Amino acid sequence: MGTAYLRKPVMPKQKDREISLALQGGGAHGAFTWGVLDRLIEEPGLTIKAITATSAGATNAVAFAAGLAQGGEDGAKASLERYWRTISEKGAPFSAFSWSNSPFAALPFGPFQAAMAFTSIASPYEFNPFDINPLRDALDEAIDFEAVHAAPIDLFLSATNVETGRVKVFQDGEISRDAVLASACLPQTFRAVEINGSAYWDGGYMGNPSLFPLIYAKAPRDVLLVLLNPISRLGVPRRVPEIMDRLNEISFNASLIGELRAIAFVQKLLDDGMLKEPLVKKYRRLTIHAIRGGQVLRDLSLQTKYDTSWTFLTHLRDKGRAEAERWLGSCSKYLGTGDSSVDLQKEFLHD
């Protein structure tokens, strides 16, 4: 970043403000991203041209795209609300199962703790023989995937190939209900999603979200990260739930930090003039911006990622709207200037 980060931005014309979004996964915390999208849609002269997303981010992406195709900006807002209302009605993954007959019924555990304990000794192939999945039902009810394909936006949805351990990015005609389910498939809770002979788990393990598709696509170079997991957290966790929460955060941030490190390295080479023609033409500069939902939500536990009550979801939506409003007021001036509004080295890479 260097001095480029410190330059005073030159305001572009509003009509030129096109952005790409990178949406993290995070279960019910994805309602925060709903709020961010809801506010960005309203901003005059700002156009979302591409979205790369994982898990809950992928569900927001297809809801946004379907609504955009069906009714423009108003349609996108309505589609997002319809999707999250459906999620609230269908309930969290564990709500579909009865734990009253489980070995943990007599123990002083809540439903979430019982579910976590149960999934540590039984796989979804054993405790969910009928493959019940509330997310599948919600997608069937709320999302028109033909409309998703017709939307004037590029989508890139990440999943993890179970056998190869590599990231799979679904795009264009590959995007389907099953692709979204694959991107959001937590292996402790759901069976791997099979698509064209390959099995997939949650994309968060290998791309949360994947940024490289934006480098190779003709997508806007201004990339707005919408983060749901805190990168840093002070203090060493000592209780089991705290340890599990922090492990979850670190695991689902690892792939993103790796990509940001690579982007920062390449941009430093470009800034320092160390890449010469024709090699320099092979690299594409991305300017990075961020809405740090992980910091806003850092006091919420892992358990709340399964809370699909409407009161909680709309509370997160309102927080997302507020953070998007704050970002628009302080950082949107960098869009179209060639400068990032965050210092990658300082904020994401340095210890």
Short description:
44% of the residues lie in helices and 14% in strands. The chain has 351 residues and is an alpha/beta fold. The longest helix has 35 residues.
Q: How does this model look, in words?
A:
By secondary structure, the protein is of the alpha/beta class. The protein has 13 helices and 8 strands. The protein has helices at 2-6, 30-42, 56-90, 111-119, 124-127, 134-142, 145-150, 177-183, 212-216, 240-271, 293-296, 310-330, 344-349, and strands at residues 17-23, 46-54, 154-161, 167-171, 193-195, 198-202, 222-227, 287-292. Strands 1, 2, 3, 4, 5, 6, 7 and 8 form an 8-stranded mixed beta sheet that branches. The two termini are 17 Å apart.
Q: Could you tell me the strand content as a percent range?
A: 5-15%
What is the tally of beta strands? 8
Q: How many separate helices?
A: 13
**Main beta sheet:** 8 strands, mixed
- Helix and strand content put the structural class at alpha/beta
Rg of Cα set: 20 Å
**H/E element sequence:** HEHEHHHHHEEHEEHEHEHHH
Q: What is the arithmetic mean of pLDDT?
A: 85
User: Low-confidence parts lasting 5 or more residues at pLDDT below 50?
Assistant: 1-14, 94-112
